[in-house]
Known about the structure:
This protein is an alpha+beta fold. It has two helices and six strands; from the N terminus they run αβββββαβ. The chain is 36% helix and 20% strand. It is globular and about 75 Å long. It starts with a helix and ends with a strand.
Amino acid sequence: MEMSESLKVNAFGIAIFAALTAALIATTYVLTKAPIEENIRQQKSAKLQEIIGTTKTDNDVFAQTITLNGSAFGYRTPIKAHVATLKDQVVTIVFPVQTQAGYSGNIDILVGVNADTSIAGVRVITHTETPGLGDKLELKKSSWILDFNNKKKLSDQDWAVKKDGGRFDQFTGATITPRAVVNAVGKTLDYVILNRNVLFKPALQEQHNEH
């Protein structure tokens, strides 16, 4: 009987501990969720401004979006692309893009494309690439990402890292990471070229496009 009672007490104690731990985790999640989301929002807003740069716009690029099928950009759910307009005409669209072909995992980037299908800019949002090698994707570590600026896709062969016969540099000791990003940006351009007439029609506050 004593052993049975002891087991009951221990089980009760474990249950109380588990409940308190779950409550603590839930509370921490609630308290940190909003600050984390706001930090991501601010980071994304800053990257958007870097991409848009000196492009003349007359709208809130962060607030004005179009909803697109995410499968063309590496996502399983719909995405919201940010739209820069001038006098109600779309001049640049910034697409959230994910590639799963990174060396250490997914790489999330923003790809800005102008109405003439040239690249406005590319910025990395998140990645887990190797420090000192793959992290040269970051502008603070290397200017490599700026090489996309104003580029147009002339051919699939041209739009590749130099090791694969293309025009873009790879990193010393790391080819997989830049190859993944170059390919992802190239696929985004393919999508824009195919759907250019729809994407760059006169702007609406919220458009839905399931291409």
